[in-house]
From TrEMBL, chains B, D:
Keywords: Amino-acid transport, Cell membrane, Membrane, Transmembrane, Transmembrane helix, Transport. It is a multi-pass membrane protein. It is found in: Cell membrane. It comes from the Bacteria. The lineage of its organism: Bacteria, Bacillati, Actinomycetota, Actinomycetes, Candidatus Nanopelagicales. This is Polar amino acid transport system permease protein. GO terms for cellular component: ATP-binding cassette (ABC) transporter complex. InterPro entries: AA_ABC_transptr_permease_3TM (IPR010065), ArtM/GltK/GlnP/TcyL/YhdX-like (IPR043429), MetI-like (IPR000515), MetI-like_sf (IPR035906). Residues 21-213 form the ABC transmembrane type-1 domain. One of its GO terms (molecular function) is transmembrane transporter activity. The keyword Transport applies. GO terms for biological process: amino acid transport. The chain crosses the membrane at residues 20-45, 57-79, 91-111, 195-213.
UniProtKB/TrEMBL annotation, chains C, E:
It comes from the Bacteria. GO terms for cellular component: plasma membrane. Its main location: membrane. The keyword Glycoprotein does not apply. It comes from Candidatus Planktophila limnetica. Residues 14-261 form the ABC transporter domain. It is a peripheral membrane protein. PROSITE patterns: ABC_TRANSPORTER_1, ABC_TRANSPORTER_2. Gene3D superfamilies: P-loop containing nucleotide triphosphate hydrolases. GO terms for molecular function: ABC-type amino acid transporter activity; ATP binding; ATP hydrolysis activity. It is found in: Cell membrane. Belongs to the ABC transporter superfamily. This is Polar amino acid transport system ATP-binding protein.
C-alpha cells in the first residue's frame, strides 16, 4: 500500500530546489511560498491523491540523497529524464523542453544553431546539465572538422551563467527553452534568445525511489492531470507552452 | 544593471533575511561552542599518555579534517536516521542535524588549535601548580586554561567567523540560512548586486560585533594591572 | 654510609621524610645515583653542590613532581614514592599524587609565577583552590604574607610588571602561605638582592624556630650555619658528605667538599 | 541503491577526478602561501606602532573576515574586470581569479593566527636579540619567526586543510575542482554514494599526507637535541 | 655632585660612556630620577642597590633597548640616546639603534636564551647574523667560549635541557663572544653556583685586564673589590654615592650605603 510508505502520512513531501524560475522559486525572491510550474503541479498532484503537499527546499546536491533516505516521497524540480538517472530512480516525464541559447542584445556573435555557429565561441552552461553535454559533444564536432573549439565554462547555478554573460565573460549561455524565456524576460534590455534552429527533444521528469509503490500511482495521476487540463492551466500561468506537456507517460 | 536601492533596502529588512541571519548566527554559535568542548578533550587526549584515547583523538582529527562538510551533512541528515531509528522523529530537524555535523567537524579543527595553545603554556606553570597540591583538573582549570585562552582567542575567533559563513552549506539538508536566501533571491530575479550587498551588510555587522567582543576578551587577557594608565606593551 | 650525625631535637624522633636509595634517569643520563637521607620533623637540612649535580631534580622527586626510577621515599612513615621493596617503580596517578603532595611546599629556582594572576591572586590561588578557604580570608592571609616579604605596595601588580627580585618574593610568599609540614627550597634567594635575602631568610629562620621541617638547596653559608642541623654535600647525583654545619664548614673530610668550599667562602 | 564498486573505482581513477584534485591542491597551496605572506605583514602592522598601517590592517581584517568567499569570488571574477580593463584578457582565468580572492580572504584569517603566535613569543627574546645588535628584520627572521612557527603550525595546518575543501566554492566562477566534479557526477547519475566516496578517498589521502608533514614539522620545532633517544616531554 | 674620584688608567682619557641627567618613567611611575655618571674606556664600574631601585632599567637604557625620557647618553663622545640639550627625547628608529648598539654587549638577569637554538647556536647566532662571520669560524669561536664557561660537553643541548646555572653560562658566553667595547652585566652571576661564579668572574676579570670597559650590576663584593674602579650605590632611581671600592666597602659616607652593606657583608 503506497500510502503507508509516505514520509508523513497524509502528506506528499516534495524535495525542491527553488532556484530555477519559472519552474520553482520563492514568491518574493527570498521568502514566502515556493511557487512555479513544478511547485504548483506537485501541489495539484497531491490534491489529486487526496494528500496535503509539503515543499521541502533542498539545494541541488541534497535532492536525491534526501529521496533515498526517505526524507521526501518525490523530487519534482525540473530534472531532465535520462537513462543514467533511470538506472537508480523511477522517472515520470511531464514536460518537453529543449535547449536554447541566450545572447547579448542584437546577437553580435551570430549564434544561430547548436552546431557550427558555436565553433570558436565562448559558452556558459550549468555544470553537469544535459545542456553542457550538448556543448561538449558539439565542441568535439568542431574540433574534428578542423574548426575552432568551444570554450565552455560551467557554473553551478543558472544565475551565475547569466552573470557571466552580462559581464562579457562568455558570448552566450545554453539553457532549457523554459529557462531562456525567464532569463530574457528579466533582462530584456540587454539579452535576447538567439533565433534559429535549436533542438527540442528532452523532457523534465519527476523522480521517485526505484521500484516505489508510489510510482505507478503518480504516473496515473500525472496522466490524468495532463488530460483534464490541470497542468495546462498551470503552464499558462507561468508563460509555458501547454503543447509541450507530454501526452505519453512513457519510459520508466 | 543599475543599483536599485529600493530593492536593496527591502531585501535588507525582509523577514527572510533576518530569519536567515538568526539561523546562521545561532547555528554557528552552538556549533562552535560544542566544537570547543569536543576539541578541548581531543587535545587533552592527544597530549596525554593514555594510548587508547591518544589514538582515538588522532584518528578522529584525521577523519574529520578530511571529510567535506557537504558530505558529513548528507550523512548526518540522511544516513544516520537509518541506523538510529530515534532520529527519524520530528524533533530531529535540519537545524539539529547541521548542529551535529558542524560540531563534529569543527571539533577536529578546534582540537588542533587548543593543542597548540596548551603547548604554548610554559611547563614550569603546571609544575608550580602541581607543587601547590592542585589536582590535574585544578591545574587545568586554574592555570592552564586561563593561559591558553590568550593564545587561543584569535584563531578561535577566526573559526567562529568562518563558521558563520560555513552554515550556508546546510542548505543541502534544507536549512535556509542567510546566504541561501540571498542565492534564492538572485535566482529569482538575477539581481545579484542588491541581494549580495544586503547579505554583506549582515555579515559586516555580525563580524564587527564579534571583533569587538574579541578585542575586549583579548584586553581582559593582557594581564596588566588595570590601575595603570599608560600600558607599555613593547614588542 | 653512616655519616649521619644529627642534632636530634627532643620530642621529634620520627623521620618526617625518609629518602632511600633513590635513582633517577633522564633517558640514558643517570642523574641521581642512589640518594639516601632522612629528615626528622623539625629539622632543617641544607644541600650544597655544583651546578648540574641533580639538586633540583632531587627536590622535584621529593615534591612528587616526577616519578623515581627506583628506591623509595617515606613521608611521616608512609610510602609516597617508589615501591616498598625499593625496586623499579611505576608512576602513580596524578590525583593520588596531588593528595600526597599537600603536606609539602616548594619554591623554585625559576619563580614560575602564574602570569595571568596578580601578586595577591598568585598567593591566594592555592588557598582557595586546594585548601578551600573563602576568598576574604585567603586574601587577608595572602596580603599579610606579601607584606612579610616586603611587597605590601605591589599586591595588584602582575608578574610581568614586577622586577626579578619582586617576582621571586611573590613565589616564596605563595609557597609559605600554605604552611605545609615540609618546605623544599630550591635556591630560593639566588635571584634576590642581598637586603631582601636577609628578610626572606629571616622568615625562613622563623619558620624553622616554629618547628617547620625544611630542605633547602642554598649557597648562603651564613644561613646554613645558623639554621641547618646538617649540611649535605651533593655531587654528580650522590651525597658525598653530610655533617653538622660547624664541622661541614670548618673541617670537612671529603676532598670534593673542601674544594667546593674554597669557592663559597 | 547498492554500492557499485565498479563505478566507484572508475570514478576514483578517472582523469576528471585526478584533474579536479590537482586543481584543489594547487589552488589551496598557492592561496595559502600568499595568505601567509599577506597575513604576516598584516599581523606586523597590527602589532606595530605606525597608526596608518595599524588601522589599514584593522580595516582589512575586518572587511575580509566579513565578506563571504562566494561573494568575493563573484566580485573578483565579474566586477573587477570592469574596473581594470587588463583583467578582461584571456590570461585572467578562473584559477587566477580564485587564487586572488582566496589569498585576500585567507590573508585576514592568517593575520589573526600569526598575530597571536607573535604575541606568544616571550618579550625577553626580542630584548636579548636586539641587545646583540640585530636589526628589527633580523630579530624577526632569526628569533621571532622560528619561535612563532611552532605555535602557528597547528592552526595554519587547519586553515590549509580547510582551504583544500574551500576551493570547491570556486565553482561559482566556473573552476571545476574535486568536489564540483563529484557533484557533477552525482547530478548526472544520481549515484552519490560512489562519487562522494571517491572524493572522500582523495581528501583522506591529501589530509593524511598533510598531517604527516605537519607532525614532521612539529617534531623539527620541538627544540630537543636530536642526540637524545627517549624524549621526555612531560606536560 | 662631584663624587667622582676615578683611578684613571694611563692612555684612556676619553669617556667611553657618558650618562647625563637621564630620567625614565613607566606610565606615572618615576623610575630613574636624573642619573649622571661616566665610564672611561678601560674602566669597570659596579652598581649595587636594592631590588626595584631601577638598576635593570638603567642598563636597558644604556643598551638602547628602551628610550630615555629626557637627558642624554654619549658613547665614544657620540650622542646615542636623548637630545643634545638633554630635553625630552623622541624614540629613534630601531634600525638606527641596532647599528649604535653594536659596540655594547649585555647579559640579562633572566637568561633570555633562544629556546629554538642549541647552546652553540645561541652563541653563534649574533656572530653570523650581525658580524657576518662564516659558519665554521663562528662555530669554533662559540665552542671555545662555551668551553671557557665550562660547557664544552653541552654544546648541542637546547636551553630546555640545561639546568638554570648552565643556561646562564650560555647567555654569558653569547654576550662575550661578540667582544664589544662596553659590556653591561645585570647580575650575571646571581643564578650561578659559587664554583661557577668564580670561573665566570675570572673570565670577566680577564676581560677587564684586556681593557674591556664594563658596567656590572652585582652584589659580589669580592669581585667589585678586585675589579671595579668605582662602585655606585643606587637607590630609588638615583646614584646616592660613588666611591672607589676600598672606600665604598670600608668607609661609605651615605646612610643608605651603610645600611645596605650590613646585608651584603
Ligand atoms: N627535563 C630534563 N630532561 C633531560 N635532562 C634534564 C632535565 N632536567 C634536568 N636535566 C639534566 O639533569 C642534570 C641535573 O639537573 P638539575 O637541574 O637537577 O641540576 P642542579 O644541581 O639543580 O643544577 P643548578 O644548580 O644549575 O640548578 C643536568 O645535567 C640537566 O642537563
Ligand atoms: N615594563 C615595565 N612596565 C612597568 N613597570 C616596570 C617595567 N619594568 C620595570 N618596572 C618597574 O620599575 C621598577 C624598577 O625595576 P628594575 O627591574 O629596573 O629594578 P631592579 O633594580 O633591577 O630590581 P631587581 O634587583 O629586583 O632586579 C620596579 O618597581 C618595577 O615594578
Ligand atoms: Mg637547580
Ligand atoms: Mg634587575
Amino acid at each position: 500500500d503506497w500510502k503507508a510508505d509516505l514520509v508523513t502520512s497524509g502528506t506528499l513531501t516534495n524535495c525542491i530546489d527553488p532556484e530555477y524560475p519559472p519552474m520553482e522559486y520563492y514568491s518574493n525572491g527570498t521568502s514566502g511560498k515556493i511557487i512555479g510550474f513544478d511547485a504548483d503541479s506537485s501541489a495539484a498532484l497531491a490534491k489529486e491523491l487526496k494528500l496535503k503537499i509539503k515543499q521541502l527546499a533542498t539545494s541541488f546536491d541534497g535532492l536525491i540523497p534526501a529521496l533515498n533516505a526517505g526524507r521526501c516521497d518525490i523530487v519534482w524540480t525540473a530534472l531532465y529524464l535520462s537513462n543514467k538517472r533511470l538506472a537508480v530512480a523511477d522517472g515520470v516525464p511531464y514536460l518537453e523542453t529543449g535547449a536554447g541559447v541566450v545572447v547579448a542584445k542584437g546577437n553580435p556573435k551570430k549564434i544561430t544553431d547548436l552546431s557550427f555557429s558555436l565553433c570558436g565561441k565562448r559558452m556558459a552552461a550549468q555544470g553537469a546539465s544535459s545542456n553542457e553535454g550538448i556543448l561538449i559533444a558539439q565542441n568535439k564536432v568542431c574540433l574534428d572538422t578542423g574548426k575552432k573549439g568551444i570554450a565552455i565554462s560551467s557554473y553551478p547555478k543558472v544565475s551565475e551563467t547569466v552573470g557571466a554573460l552580462l559581464n562579457g565573460k562568455v558570448d552566450g549561455l545554453i539553457e532549457t527553452d523554459v529557462g531562456c524565456g525567464d532569463i530574457v524576460s528579466k533582462n530584456s534590455k540587454r539579452l535576447e534568445v538567439a533565433k534559429g534552429y535549436f533542438l527540442g527533444d528532452v523532457q523534465f521528469a519527476a523522480y521517485m525511489n526505484k521500484g516505489a509503490a508510489l510510482t505507478p500511482v503518480v504516473q496515473k495521476a500525472v496522466e490524468k492531470l495532463i488530460s483534464n487540463g490541470t497542468l495546462a492551466k498551470i503552464a499558462k500561468r507561468y508563460n509555458l507552452d501547454p503543447e509541450k506537456l507530454t501526452s505519453v507517460g512513457a519510459p520508466i | 544593471m543599475d543599483f536599485e536601492s529600493k530593492l536593496f533596502f527591502e531585501v535588507l529588512f525582509s523577514g527572510a533575511f533576518l530569519k536567515g541571519a538568526a539561523i546562521s548566527l545561532s547555528l554557528a554559535t552552538l556549533s562552535q561552542f560544542f566544537a570547543i568542548l569536543f576539541g578541548f578533550f581531543l587535545a587533552i587526549f592527544r597530549l596525554g599518555k593514555n594510548p587508547v584515547l591518544k589514538s582515538f583523538a588522532g584518528v578522529y582529527i584525521w577523519l574529520f579534517r578530511a571529510i567535506p562538510a557537504l558530505l558529513l551533512l548528507l550523512i548526518v541528515w540522511n544516513a544516520l536516521p537509518q541506523l538510529i531509528p530515534a532520529l527519524r522523529q520530528e524533533w530531529y530537524s535540519p537545524f539539529l542535524a547541521a548542529l551535529l555535523a558542524l560540531s563534529l567537524l569543527e571539533g577536529a579543527y578546534m582540537a588542533e588549535i587548543l593543542r597548540s595553545s596548551i603547548m604554548s603554556v610554559d611547563e614550569g606553570q603546571a609544575l608550580a601548580a602541581r607543587a601547590l597540591g592542585m589536582t590535574p583538573t585544578q591545574v587545568m582549570r586554574k592555570v592552564v586554561i586561563p593561559q591558553l585562552t590568550r593564545i587561543a582567542i584569535p584563531p578561535t575567533a577566526n573559526e567562529y567567523i568562518g563558521m558563520i559563513k560555513y552554515t550556508s552549506l546546510a542548505s543541502v539538508i534544507s536549512l535556509q540560512e542567510l546566504l541561501t536566501r540571498a542565492g534564492n533571491g538572485v535566482s529569482a530575479t538575477f539581481r545579484y548586486v542588491e541581494y549580495y550587498a544586503a547579505a554583506l551588510i549582515y555579515y559586516l555587522v555580525i563580524v564587527s560585533i564579534l571583533m569587538i567582543l574579541q578585542s575586549r576578551l583579548e584586553k581582559r587577557y593582557a594581564w596588566i594591572s588595570t590601575t595603570k594608565k599608560s600600558g607599555k606593551v613593547s614588542k | 654510609m653512616d655519616f649521619y650525625n644529627q642534632k636530634e631535637r627532643e620530642g621529634f624522633q620520627v623521620s618526617l621524610i625518609d629518602v632511600q636509595k633513590v635513582e633517577k634517569y633522564y633517558g640514558d643520563n643517570h642523574i641521581l645515583k642512589g640518594v639516601d637521607f632522612k629528615i626528622n620533623a623539625g629539622q632543617v637540612k641544607a644541600i650544597m653542590g655544583p651546578s648540574g649535580s641533580g639538586k633540583s631534580t632531587l627536590l622535584r622527586l621529593i615534591a612528587l613532581l616526577e616519578p623515581v626510577h627506583s628506591g623509595k621515599i617515606l613521608f611521616n612513615g608512609d610510602l609516597i614514592a617508589g615501591n616498598s621493596d625499593g625496586s623499579r617503580a611505576k608512576p602513580e596517578s596524578e590525583k593520588v599524587l596531588a593528595l600526597r603532595r599537600r603536606g609539602i611546599g616548594m619554591v623554585f629556582q625559576k619563580f614560575n609565577l602564574f602570569p595571568h594572576l596578580s601578586a595577591v591572586e598568585n598567593v591566594m590561588c592555592a588557598l582557595t583552590t586546594v585548601q578551600g578557604l573563602d576568598k576574604k580570608d585567603a586574601r587577608n592571609q595572602s596580603i599579610h604574607m606579601l607584606e612579610r616579604v616586603g611587597l605590601g605596595d605591589r599586591i595588584t601588580f602582575f608578574p610581568s610588571e614586577l622586577s626579578g627580585g619582586q617576582q621571586q618574593r611573590v613565589a616564596i610568599a605563595r609557597a609559605l602561605v600554605l604552611a605545609p609540614q615540609l618546605m623544599l627550597f630550591d635556591e630560593p634567594t639566588s635571584a634576590l638582592d642581598p637586603e631582601l635575602v636577609r628578610e626572606v631568610l629571616k622568615v625562613m629562620e622563623k619558620l624553622a624556630e616554629d618547628g617547620m621541617t625544611m630542605l633547602v638547596v642554598t649557597h648562603e653559608v651564613g644561613f646554613a650555619r645558623r639554621v641547618a642541623n646538617e649540611v649535605l654535600m651533593f655531587d654528580e647525583g650522590e651525597i658525598v658528605e653530610a655533617l653538622p654545619p660547624d664541622q661541614f664548614f670548618t673541617n670537612p673530610s671529603h676532598e670534593r667538599t673542601k674544594k667546593f668550599l674554597e669557592h663559597v667562602q
